[in-house]
Amino acid sequence: MTQVPAEGLISHSLAPDRRLLGRRGWNLARDTGAAGLEFPPHLIGEQHHTVIDLGSVKRLVMMVTPEGGGAFRDEAWEAVSTIRAILRQQSVPMEVTMQTVFVRDRADVPVLELLFKAYYGERMPLTLFVVQPPCEGRGLAIEAWAVSTDTAKVEYHNEHLVTVNYGDMRWVYASGGSLHREGRTAYEQSLEAFQNLQQSLKTVGASFEDVVRVWLYQGCITEEVDGVERYRELNRARTDFFANIPFDHRRIPMAKNGHAIYPASTGIGTHCHGLITACMALQTNRQDVALLPLENPLQVSAFDYPKEYSAKSPKFARAMAVRAGEFVTTWISGTASIVNSETVFKGDAVGQTEQTLTNIEKLIAPENFARLGWEDAGATLDDLAKIHVYVKHAEDFEKVRAVCERRLGRLPAIYAVADVCRPDLLVEIEGVAFSRIHQPQHFPGGDL
Ligand code: 3EB
Questions:
Q1: Ligand 1: which atom is nearest the Cα of residue 231?
Q2: Residue 71 and which of 134, 159, 367, 379 are 20 to 30 A apart at CA?
């Protein structure tokens, strides 16, 4: 992967910081309980993380899959120790704001809750537990986001709400729904989850039209109940809920490009019948902040899918770009091997992975930003800070990973087994790209 130091905002690290290995005063027995090991597993294992330098603030994303093996407790301990080691390697103090924990078995969640309480204490990040077995066969994998606290202020309001303030912007992370609430219709469950998110946002003066990114982890997503698929019922509830949200009158200026107005989204399966949801909202009065919802030039917009896929179409943008001063963050929705509105490379996980990456490449390309209204922005696959890869069949994992690593290099990633919402989709990939505003290549009308 080509890194241009003067330009690149992100730096990936996969290996541990070797300086830590020689650190004096590191007490193996105290710090890991792993007497007898030359080095604790969280220091010799990989430490997939990316530092994003946004000038006045640093962001850090960690994609941690433990490698040391052992019982679930040991794996969980290794993962948390890895997070701690990565945080300690940073040049500025950082705190975790949000984490999504992918677990093999729902029964292991209480162990994690205890461990997180012990480690984070009162400063508990917004935490989602998603039952999606990590592909490497491990009991868990954690995606954790942190921010530099010398310039940002993090407030932990309650288990469903965290806010992060910096540079006159406020990010609001909210969660709704539950792993445990079962025995309700998918429609009721979905509507309730959106209402919970709205309620949480309201307590800090935000509203749903401020939301830029949504995650929906739906239990048994493709299961039919009374002849209707649960995912279709989620779409019906989302359509009803969104009908009352004035997305087209957001407080932050949004480029108008037809009728793409919705937040970016991931809609994916998880075990059990619960529904885990989270969203991220942005509030600011800054004049140099703006939003651009992106649609894919290769795909029909999801909200325009023909009725055969879902009577009420999935209401989401293919990506949401947020610009703030010279920086652009592009939140890429769950992306699959769909061209126009049809699944392509049916039964071929390698072909689907290639197509999915091509879809992402075209979606975030400067040409697409220009087509949709921003002449001075855009990104490449090299600008991805991390990816999350959802694989339908565990046996496809190695092939899928080989394609991702060939096209993206080795960037921080988590691979987990999950049901994708169409029976013929074998892979879905989401990610985030960070890029800088560049000089417009041409000046339409020449009126500068
Ligand atoms: C697709 O492109 C694949 O329902 O929110 C991807 C991302 C998908 C989000 C959602 C669904 C959703 O249609 C599935």
A1: 4
A2: 159
With a CB cutoff of 8 Å and minimum separation 6, the contacts of 283 are 169, 170, 172, 205, 206, 210, 251, 252
pTM of the model: 0.91
The ligand 1 atom at the shortest distance from the C-alpha of residue 314 is: 4
Triad 422, 427, 430: Cα angle to 5° = 105
| Among protein residues, the one whose CA lies closest to atom 11 of ligand 1 | 267
Please enumerate in sequence order all residues whose Cβ is within 8 A of that of 228, keeping only pairs 6 or more positions apart, or say none: none
pLDDT-derived band at 10, boundaries 50, 70, 90: confident
Mind listing the pLDDT tens digit for each residue in 158-176? 999 999 999 999 999 999 8
pLDDT higher than 90, residue 218: yes
- Residue 321 Cα distances to 195, 253, 316, angstroms: 25, 12, 13
Which among 91, 84, 143, 157 is positioned nearest to 119, based on CA atoms?
A: 84
pLDDT at 382: 96
> What is the whole-number distance in angstroms between the Cα of residue 227 and the centre of ligand 1?
21
- Ligand 1: residue whose CA is nearest its atom 3: 336
Maximal C-alpha separation, the chain: 71
Q: Tens digit of pLDDT for each residue in 227-259?
A: 999 999 999 999 999 999 999 889 998 887 766
CA of 266 to the centre of ligand 1 (A): 6
User: Is 308 one of the annotated active-site residues of the chain?
Assistant: no
CA–centroid distance, 159 to ligand 1, in Å, is: 27
Q: CA torsion, points 176, 180, 182, 184, in degrees to nearest 10?
A: -20
